[in-house]
Amino acid sequence: RSMLKGEKEACYHTVSFSEVVLAEEKGTHKLVAIKCIPKKALEGKENSIENEIAVLHKIKHANIVSLEEIFESKSHLYLIMQLVSGGELFDRIIEKGFYTEKDASKLIQQILDAVKYLHDMGIVHRDLKPENLLYYSMDEDSKIMISDFGLSKIEGSGSVMSTACGTPGYVAPEVLAQKPYSKAVDCWSIGVIAYILLCGYPPFYHENDAKLFEQILKAEYEFDSPYWDDISDSAKDFIVHLMEKDPNTRYTCDQALQHPWIAGDTALDKNIHESVSAQIKKNFAKSKWKQAFNATAVVRHMRRLQLGTSHEGLNPPLASPCQTHLLEEGAGGDSSGCIVVSNRFESLTGSS
């Protein structure tokens, strides 16, 4: 277990040292998210961030957050990312008054399309989970977007992946067993996400990691009553094929996309919002370090604060560590503390 824990932590480091700021491109007023990575934090980890950038550079898909540009200063690396402003998956489900199997099916179809695209390019995400699924906009019919490629791996010719990566609760049995694994790990994770979308709680849960890993290794999960009583047999069948212990018989993205619950009309229209949202609130407390936000509202709020600073004598919003450092090294900063990366961008928020 200690070896597994060490490898797992080694895989997590890409999310722990970066900061994200909301910014606006001055010329076009286009909003972007800038991932600020201190070079000091990269020492000894250069390969990992190079991998993330290599992966992001290759990807162009409607349901995947894109890397638009890269800037570099003496002390920081800046990834200019497409901004997604619609909030996190669970928040939107809770906010809905009506939510059905069909809604869940449409969400999973988009995720499958995106992951199939990745797999066709030889890319394995390795950390698919609800927290990495964001809505593109606040529109009711907004598409879902996959973000965070810090653990992604580009398959090389003949290369075998064996490093224990991912988030406990979503990782496939073969990963925990420290066996060589493949694209099938992503399909397992999609099965776990589909399970949660239909009941609001995870298929595997235990406060003791060893017990949790034991459940996953045995692929022990249930469709508990009463939470699954109103869910179709087709939905359960879909999940069973994705959460299959043997990666060789587990559904691929192609097979999953052809399942009647996705491609047919077997997903039910019955409203399951009350039960699912209650369970989500109970089982998925909001992560403090990763807050969803409505970009438009944030921009409006920050500008109001800055206006207040000028005209009402209010204290200005504090600059984030990333912004402060940029000002010190003169990377396009001005006296207001608002310019980030280059004079093309104006920072509108601190870290999020």
From TrEMBL:
Coiled coil: none annotated. GO terms for molecular function: ATP binding; protein serine/threonine kinase activity. It comes from the Eukaryota. Keywords: ATP-binding, Kinase, Nucleotide-binding, Serine/threonine-protein kinase, Transferase. PANTHER family: SERINE/THREONINE-PROTEIN KINASE. The lineage of its organism: Eukaryota, Metazoa, Chordata, Craniata, Vertebrata. Pfam families: Pkinase. Residues 6-262 form the Protein kinase domain. SUPFAM superfamilies: Protein kinase-like (PK-like). This is Calcium/calmodulin dependent protein kinase I.
